[in-house]
Amino acid sequence: MPTLNPDILRWARTTAGLSLEEAAHAIELNDARGVSGSQRLAALEAGKEEPSRPLLLRMAKAYRRSLLVFYLEKEPKTGDRGKDFRRLPGGAAPQYNPVLDALIRDIKGRQSLIKSLLEDAEAGELPFIGSAKPETPVPELAERITKQLQFDLNTFREQKTIEEAFAYLRQKTEASRIFVLLLGNLGSHHTNISVETFRGFALADKIAPLAVINDNDAGFAWSFTTLHEVAHLWLGETGVSGWAGVLPVEQYCSDVAAEILLPPKELEEFARIGAVTFDHIAEQVSRFADRRNISRAMVAYRLFRTGSINEKTWGGAQRQVLQGLACSR
Hints:
There is one protein chain. By secondary structure, the chain is mainly α. The chain has three domains: about 5-70, 434 Repressor (Amino-terminal Domain); about 85-260, no CATH class; about 265-329, no CATH class. It is built from 13 helices and five strands. The protein has helices at about 5-15, 20-25, 35-45, 55-60, 100-120, 140-150, 155-160, 160-175, 220-235, 250-260, 280-290, 295-305, 310-329; strands at about 85, 180, 200-205, 210-215, 240. It has a five-stranded mixed beta sheet. The longest helix has 23 residues, at about 100-120.
């Protein structure tokens, strides 16, 4: 049996988002002879001991890696997650997150399986994937998506709860062979990924496209995020989206999603409310959003993009939503 590079053991654990203590528990490495499981794992990662094959098999399962990975000579490059559409105010990209990387790896594994099954069934390519460009007018792309999904806005709004409204949209989306996944961790709440880290992920593929929604986000945001990721699929773009839509392509996809869920004519009741704070219009926005099974944040975004409220007020609305999510956890 070839000698293992202990750096691979450490890399596999950290890219799975696990601490030494969490990993020791996950791979059932118990305390022995006065040495804790985490200390034993640290010794393995330092090259002081070699793991047994049964232990390697448990590592492969817990770290979501192929067994062959542990016999590589050096750490592989970070998996390609496509484009990173996330940007913080000021233009900086968020820091690397090993749990997110592990989740994307898991998503791609699921997509490969789905694609293989579809190819075996001789499923054809989907012509609408990659059929649009950022220059396509927002109303035009919104209409094309609505028509392809056979999405009826009135039916969406008639649903009794936001969960049922999302289920209706999800059913329509998957009927067009776009698979919608609700995923925000690696199977345990200990690996929950915050919405500040990612809100959605689009995997553009002409056979098995995926739209992934972070289910740690509030339920009323799921429909908007789904359509945002669907717009990325129409652009043929694979990548991860975040909370703040700083990049032009993120604003474009959000505008398309908002156009589908909230036609601009319906905002006329707000007129130009200008420089008031979001607190002053929160109750009005809340009633308006509830009637339509959409989020207050989406209404505020739509008001901002149509010029009814300024950027400062929109920023305040974003902060309120994030604070609300933090309090609900």
